[in-house]
Amino acid sequence: MYAGDINFYDNEIVELAKSGGIFGLQLDERRIGSKQYIGQVHINSGSKTKRMHSNSKLVWNNIQHIVQLLDQHDLYAWDSIAIGSDNDGIIDPINLFWTSEEMDDLVQYIERHAHNFLSDPASEIKNDYNRISAAEAVQRIFQQLMEFFRKYFHSSNSNGIV
Predict the structure, then answer these.
(1) DSSP string for residues in 66-98
(2) Residue 23 belongs to what H/E stretch?
(3) What per-residue confidence (pLDDT) applies to 95?
(4) Crossing angle of the two packed helices 134-152 and 103-118, in degrees rounded to 10
(5) Among residues 36, 47, 71, 101, which is most buried (max CB within 10 A)?
(6) pLDDT (tens digit, 9 = 90+) per residue, 68-108?
């Protein structure tokens, strides 16, 4: 994860999850990984598929960190993570995932990373309730924000959201 002031510390992630809150992971490349890691991840040659797989790892690494952290604290991890972006209007989007047109591609690549992680018996997840299918993980991550809005901002809300 990026070490800038905008990101959460692990203890804040745990407290937010305990409170029933969610993390809206942004898709701004400057915020989702350190410059050093981004430099390692980005490959400028090879097929577009390989480059998309590599670049989507920036998002997956944040997801995996949160899942492992919450699992270590015996918390269900998958209700606390969301993509907090419509993927348009980002100043520095993740390479090859520039607009909402590429959101379906990002979903597919995140599902691949989730499958690789969740199907590996050596992955650092101690609680079986956090070892869900890759498809369910992706569905939760990409639909969580709307569920949060439906739960907390309904039509009787004077703000008129959702």
Answers:
(1) HHHHHHHTT---TTSEEE---SSS-SSBPTT--
(2) strand 23-25
(3) 86
(4) 120
(5) 71
(6) 999 999 999 999 999 887 666 788 888 888 888 898 999 99
Query: Which residues fall within 8 angstroms of residue 122, CB to CB, at 6 or more apart?
Result: none
The helix (H) or strand (E) run that includes residue 107 is helix 103-118
The three state secondary structure string of 113-152 is HHHHHHCCCCCCCCCHHHCCCHHHHHHHHHHHHHHHHHHH
Amino acid at the residue 13? I
Per-residue model confidence (pLDDT) at position 3? 52
Determine the distance from the C-alpha atom of residue 81 to the mean position of all C-alpha atoms in its chain, rounded to a whole number.
Answer: 6
Secondary structure of residue 54 in the 3-state scheme: helix
What would the two tokens of residue 50 be?
């390989």
Mean pLDDT of 52-80: 95
